[in-house]
Design brief:
Blueprint lengths: L2 H34 L4 H5 L14 H8 L6 H10 L4 E6 L2 E6 L2 H9 L4 E3 L3 H7 L9 H16 L1 H23 L3 E3 H18 L4 H18 L10 H29 L8 H7 L10 H32 L1 H16 L10 H5 L2 H14 L5 E5 L3 E3 L2 E3 L4 E4 L1 H5 L39 H18 E5 L6 E2 L5 E2 L4 E6 L3
Parallel strand pairs: 2-8
Antiparallel strand pairs: 1-2, 3-5, 4-12, 5-8, 6-7, 9-12, 10-11
């Protein structure tokens, strides 16, 4: 081929590449044109810097690619590298124009300003957890339902009541697991925490009901952070089927409870379901079945997933750091030594003496960041840190970035409970359960469960992982891909 031939080919290659660049620019401008065109020029110029991604799917490909790799922080790192440490970035996530927030002061502003922000969960989350659960109802309805449900799971009296039940089942579970040999540690922990939350809400220990519900929740959770694509083969499609099965099981439970109550009108309240069936608003209206079931779906899910995962991570992180394990164990031994000789089991007094163990739990919550982000929506045009957030846009509070900020937590990827010795986190810098009016209502119960488990584990057991280098999955929650396979061993005293 002559020089003219090569020159002609180069010309056409250049034309092709040029057209591809133009096409890419056009496609990357579609979301900007759709969602920014009606904003005044001055407001458009005050939007945070960022990237609205591709048409319709926005930044979801890069988000999912990062969180399915071994470097989930690559997603946010791209924004930091391209646009600097601004703390707020425009994007297009979960089907909506969004502002990603990665700094404490802005997170705190959004979480506490109920006049300007409301829950803004993605379609998949609302549909799967329930439109009439906490994540989908109005501020006033949320305030009323939270008041009803928070005390029974977080109040002083409730925690005292549940301690014996939790401790009994923890002791039995550890003894049983130590005789089973090779187990999936996370799977068994999730079953244990699910048994506890089922007792609190439904007063049931029916293994059949628990197994059926827990199985469906496992499928449901894979769809909560997915795109709402209702096509076979996609996580959301399978999760919708799981929700349908969950609702059917819970509808049967609610129906049977109503029949029992009608047959025995004088029966005393036993659990959260009774409280939900009895509650009325200021107009005397009771909750309907859909409201009750959506509340149960939300609580039963949140009430075992976080506790199970954080208990697993606390255990294996302590086991991997003998120096911290030793400090935590010594504290628990001293607590037992100082208990009255006639006392059987732990009380809140002993729980409040677990100062170092509390630091272990807080450090695990920070490092793992079980809920990597939460969602809000601007109820009106808002200004934060000099940036404009349009009414109706979603706001994604990226807790993972806050908890892994080296300026707040030196060597943030290291597990170091002792960092909390002299650390009082400033507002907005430690958000494992959120903050403001939508703070997770079961946070105290979750920490109590984790502490009781660790108390007995530290005193009497050790855990040997089969594959300590097992890769980690980050969606829907951080966990070893093998569900932490290993052996629980009882230690001799």
């Amino acid at each position: 081929m002559g020089a003219d031939g090569f020159g002609g080919m180069s010309y056409y290659v250049g034309i092709f590449l040029g057209l591809m660049l133009i096409l890419k620019w056009v496609l990357k401008s579609v979301n900007i044109w759709i969602y920014e065109r009606n904003l005044e020029k001055k407001k458009r110029e005050c939007l945070p810097p960022g990237d609205m991604g591709w048409p319709f799917i926005g930044n979801m490909w890069s988000f999912l690619r990062a969180f399915k790799s071994n470097d989930p922080d690559a997603f946010i790192s791209t924004f930091l590298r391209r646009f600097g440490s601004r703390g707020l970035y425009k994007s297009f996530m979960f089907g909506s124009p969004s502002i990603i927030v990665t700094v404490p002061e802005a997170c705190r502003k959004v979480l506490f300003d109920d006049e300007a922000f409301q829950p803004g969960w993605p379609t998949a989350t609302r549909e799967l957890i329930g439109k009439k659960s906490f994540i989908g109802i109005s501020y006033e309805d949320h305030k009323r339902l939270r008041k009803l449900t928070a005390a029974p799971v977080n109040g002083h009296e409730a925690l005292s009541t549940y301690m014996q039940y939790i401790e009994t089942n923890v002791v039995l579970a550890l003894e049983k697991w130590s005789k089973m040999g090779r187990i999936e540690f996370l799977t068994h922990l999730r079953k244990l925490t699910f048994q506890i939350i089922m007792h609190i809400f439904l007063s049931t220990e029916s293994e059949h009901v628990m197994d059926a519900l827990e199985k469906e929740y496992t499928v449901l959770n894979y769809g909560v952070r997915a795109m709402a694509i209702n096509i076979p083969g996609f996580a959301y499609y399978n999760a919708l089927k799981a929700r349908k099965n969950l609702v059917a099981i819970l509808q049967t439970v609610v129906h049977e409870r109503r029949k029992k109550r009608e047959a025995n009108e004088g029966m005393s309240k036993k659990d959260m379901l009774d409280a939900l069936l009895d509650t009325t608003d200021e107009k005397g209206r009771k909750l309907d079945d859909e409201e009750i079931i959506d509340t149960l779906v939300m609580y039963l899910n949140a009430g075992h997933e976080s506790s199970g995962h954080i208990t697993m991570w606390s255990t294996i992180l302590l086991q991997a750091h003998p120096e911290f394990f030793h400090i935590a164990k010594e504290e628990q031994e001293m607590i037992v030594k100082n208990m009255p000789p006639t006392q059987e089991g732990l009380t809140l007094k002993e729980y409040r003496q677990m100062e170092y163990l509390s630091k272990v739990i807080d450090e695990t919550l920070r490092l793992v960041t079980f809920s990597l982000m939460t969602f809000r929506e601007a109820k009106k045009d808002v200004d934060i840190k000099g940036y404009f957030i349009p009414k109706g846009w979603k706001v994604l509070l990226w807790f993972r970035s806050v908890h892994h900020n080296p300026e707040l937590y030196p060597q943030p990827k290291e597990f170091n409970p002792s960092r909390w010795d002299d650390l009082v986190p400033k507002p907005g810098t430690f958000l494992p359960f959120g903050a403001g009016s939508r703070l997770c209502p079961g946070n105290d119960l979750a920490k109590l469960e984790i502490a009781i488990f660790l108390h007995h584990f530290l005193l009497n057991y050790e855990f040997e992982r089969e594959n300590p280098e097992c890769p980690i999955m980050y969606l829907p929650h951080s966990r070893p891909k093998d569900n932490c396979v290993g052996r629980v061993r009882r230690v001799s005293k």
